[in-house]
Amino acid sequence: MTTGASWSDGKAEGNRYIGSLGDRGVQEDVSFETDTRFGLQISSDIAENMSVTAQLLGTGIDGNFDAVVEWAYMEYEATDWLSIRSGKLKQPIYMVNDYVEVGYAYPWIRPPVEVYYLNNPLNTINGVELLFQFNVGPGTLSFQPYFGSNADDIPNTGGQGTFEAEKIRGFDLKYSGRGYSVHAGKFVCDVKLFGQLGGVPIGFPPNPALPAGGSDIVDINLNGEGECDVAATGFNLDIANIVVYSEYQERKTQDGLSRPFGNQEAWYTTIGYRFGKFLP
Length: 280
Description:
Layout: E1 37-47, E2 50-59, E3 68-77, E4 82-90, H1 113-118, E5 124-136, E6 139-153, E7 161-177, E8 180-201, E9 217-221, E10 224-239, E11 242-253, E12 264-273
Antiparallel strand pairs: 1-2, 2-3, 3-4, 4-5, 5-6, 6-7, 7-8, 8-9, 8-10, 10-11, 11-12
């Protein structure tokens, strides 16, 4: 379980930057919605070399802590170096995606939203993935190709727009050693958009494609389709009390997706030093 309170001194309406995924975001009133969540993960062996895993998750920003199935997959260990997973899976595109809801496992209050939420609202896919793992030198080399689909609300539309991502095909390549890891990932998918965003002021911040200035209200037609291409790379280091995390991501889309999902780049770098139990 992770819990936390948050508030903003910003007076602009529609400040959803920190919330980012269609919720009401961080406002002037103190709220526990954005940073409070409770999860329960269950795993069981069902046959030789075969297991099932399910994860239930409740968050304040999604249905007022109504439980949703975050993970649900079956895994078959074909060999010591190959596993096959099928079902609802975490999409292995970023460094901490496998445990993005487990706040204890990384050094932030929440993962940097520029990379983890704003550019790619997909955290899971419904499909299949292969996991190859080999001992190489002092560390482990892993390769995860995957294929699947998913659908969700378009971020910052208040549920007025949805998207379907079909034929998601991608991979993640990672090398991990004692106290360090480096990874690179990429995926492409076909996307269809549905809906209309009504009552938007011209120049509203979440829509940089709109003209700036003025106070006119417009309706934005979100319908469209095209291909999306996302690439990411990053590394982390945790040695001798020094902690470093850094990732870079680039998203390219076709014109039919440009309003809610235009071309973007995002990156972050975190540097910390441990003093006992404190990590500034």
